Amino acid sequence: MPQFPKPIQNLIEEFNKLPGIGPKTSERFVYYLLRQPRTTVDSLAQAIKALRDKVVVCDTCHAFAEYNPCAICRSSSRDKTMLCVVAESPQIQILEKTREYNGLYFVLGGVLNPVEGVTPDRLNIRLLVERLKKSQPKIKEVILALNPDVEGESTGLYLKKILQPHVAKVSRLARGLPVGADLEYADEVTLADALKGRH
Q1: Is residue 109 part of a domain?
Q2: Which of 68, 70, 83, 180 has the fewest CB atoms within 10 Å, i.e. is most exposed?
Q3: DSSP readout, 57-110?
């Protein structure tokens, strides 16, 4: 069976390492790039190189940023008494787009998942506790903004127990019915959460 030329095969294998990208999609990416002008391919290569050369991890919140500390941690207009805990850095941008939260953030670096070997010592939990102890002004509320799945729920319960001695309030995002939902099709857990979080 004929093989791809080595440079094509190498790039297909690199694309295959990306999450959610299989061999067929990798091949499409490679052949798309081969049809593009050299300037387009050079721009992509430079952007990938800059990703590693110019993106750092903020020492304060552990988010990906261009500078250390990041713009949010440096900002004088943020509410420094509130801290929102997320699993991964991209979730900060999702929350920022709502324009409803003006506090600070902390990135855990994942969620607890013993099946995949993600135990508390593999996450930034110790650093989170240290931040709560050292924060000036004192952080009054920690919001757990974790996915409502098994891993997110178990991580939230674990964090609540660990954080309660260090902060006045530990809360989580409200849950319930999405806009446009029909009560007839909602499951009992979603309805129960909607009733508890009513306002």
Answers
A1: yes
A2: 180
A3: E-TTT--EESSSS-HHHH-SSSEEEEEEEESSTHHHHHHHTTT---EEEEE-SS
pTM: predicted TM-score of the whole model, two decimal places: 0.85
In terms of residue numbers, what domain contains 123? 64-172
pLDDT given for residue 4 in this prediction: 87
CB pairs under 8 A, 24+ apart, for 57-64? Answer: 60/104, 60/131, 61/92, 61/104, 61/105, 61/106, 61/107, 62/89, 62/106, 62/107, 62/108, 62/109, 62/124, 62/127, 63/89, 63/92, 63/105, 63/107, 64/89
Q: Of all helices (H) and strands (E), which one includes residue 160? A: helix 150-163
Exposed/middle/buried for residue 92 (C-beta within 10 Å: 0-12, 13-18, 19+):
buried
Q: Is residue 19 part of a domain?
A: yes
Q: What is the pLDDT of residue 158?
A: 97
Report mean pLDDT in 10-residue bins for the chain, 199 residues.
84 96 96 97 96 96 97 97 97 95 97 94 97 95 94 96 96 84 79 76
The backbone region for 72, taken as left when phi is positive above 0, alpha when psi lies in -120 to 50, beta otherwise, is alpha
Residues 90 and 12 grouped into a single domain = no
